[in-house]
Amino acid sequence: MPINGISRISRRTVLAAAGATAAVAAAGLAAAPAAQAATAAPVLPNGTSQDKVLVVGMDGLRYDRIDAAKAPTLKSLMANGTYGRSLLYANPMAGTLSGPGWSTISTGVWPDKHGVKDNTFTGRDYGQYPGFLARLNQVRPELSLFAAVDWPELDTYGTVTPGADAKLVYDNNYAVNDLTITDLTEDVLRNQNPDVLFVYFGETDEIGHNYGAASPKYTDAIDVQDGYLGRLLAAIQARPTYAAERWTVIVATDHGHTDAGGHGGSSIEERRTFVLAQGPGIAAGARPIDTRLVDVAATVFHQLGIAPDPAWGLDGKPIQLRSTDPFDTLYPSLSGRVDENGIPTGVLGFTHTAPSGWSVINNAMGTGGMTEWRGWSFATDEFWSRTQRDQSRELNVRARGVFAVADSDEWADKAFSGTYDSTLVTPAYGVSGAAAVTLDLTTLYRQEGTQSAQILASFNGGTPVLVRSYTADVLSKPQSVTVAVPAGASSVSFRFRYTGANNWYWVIDGVKVTTS
């Protein structure tokens, strides 16, 4: 049973309480009575940092429904901060569920690392990949850390609250306890000196389940939570030390919802997520295409001046750090569907035009087939994964923005002859005086039958030499290939050759070439 009152463990404070007993009017959230806090706000140690971060998690908040809501606070943050939207994974990596979603936000790594695939939290590895509050407690124990949740599993299984100096843990009576959390967190912000806070609101998810994301009740729930967020921001601005502090505010969600209500599957609506941030060094009005849900933890560390240890294995990057991937330069020139009737006409997401310095060789390519996928294409996650659900295209989590894809499976969905045979060629990179050259990239590859995927290197424009081939699935993993530089070589280019016939696909992204 939850416990009322405050208990002290070392410098940590825990306030756990059942939901207030006041009934919520069935007519809507706005009519919910004020929750009565069981006790005063917990006491935190005095903070030590002028750089401070508030992370607010809004469960099941589908970002495209914010536009339909009033949501003045969220819309102000969008105008004055950076707003990155992206899609989640789906099974078999993990379901579009809260357990894996909040684990991804908190740890800064994808489910294939943190191990949480569903709401049982079976397989979790928070020892290797702790949440950002736990990590901060390890590397900056002098920071004052606070957490407030009313989905208690986030505390029970150690997803969010470990490391916090004080925490509020309530049951999932969200209409009451979201307000209680707001009341007590506002008190903490006005009257104490926390450094980093994680605050969770759950009512948007509850209303999504009960009424659907297309319901006016869902947009009403967004407006109520927006009001709670506004109160927290007003409390920050009312702090007597606010002028000397550098505050970052981050808002994120763990998954989307279907129009009818529910999540866990692989539809685009269930996979929708966002990261919204405002603070020092974060551009106003930016709409990056390369943001992912794993970027929350990395942004927290960056705003506190903490350089993550590579041993942490983070998959995320700070939200204001842009990708240097050449494929992302193609975003303004992406087109809509040609043959892919399952993709809405308004979704722009593919081109055959390679980035500057790159080229595609299709002289051995078969004829016909689906126009979008005839030879190497450049596409976005939403456009490509809409082509066919539940064939692991949703697992392309480590690609960002625009990526290169060779997809013989989709190409073969329209009459064709011959085989799929296409080669993507990089620019020439200088290697004079280097002993070795290293190619780094991210790959999603599915193997079937006689298809082949090869990486070849050509020095000084000479005959390409095979340096790696793939014969088994590689499900969104970083890859590194190091090749010795021949004596006298001054340049190298790499080739990615994919062949097949109604087989699977090969994705590459994040290409980087360095010498040593």
From TrEMBL:
Presence of keyword Signal: yes
The keyword Manganese belongs to this UniProt entry's keyword annotation: no
Pfam family, one: Phosphodiest
Residues annotated as signal peptide: 1-37
Keywords attached to this entry: Signal
Molecular function terms from GO: hydrolase activity
The protein's name: Nucleotide pyrophosphatase
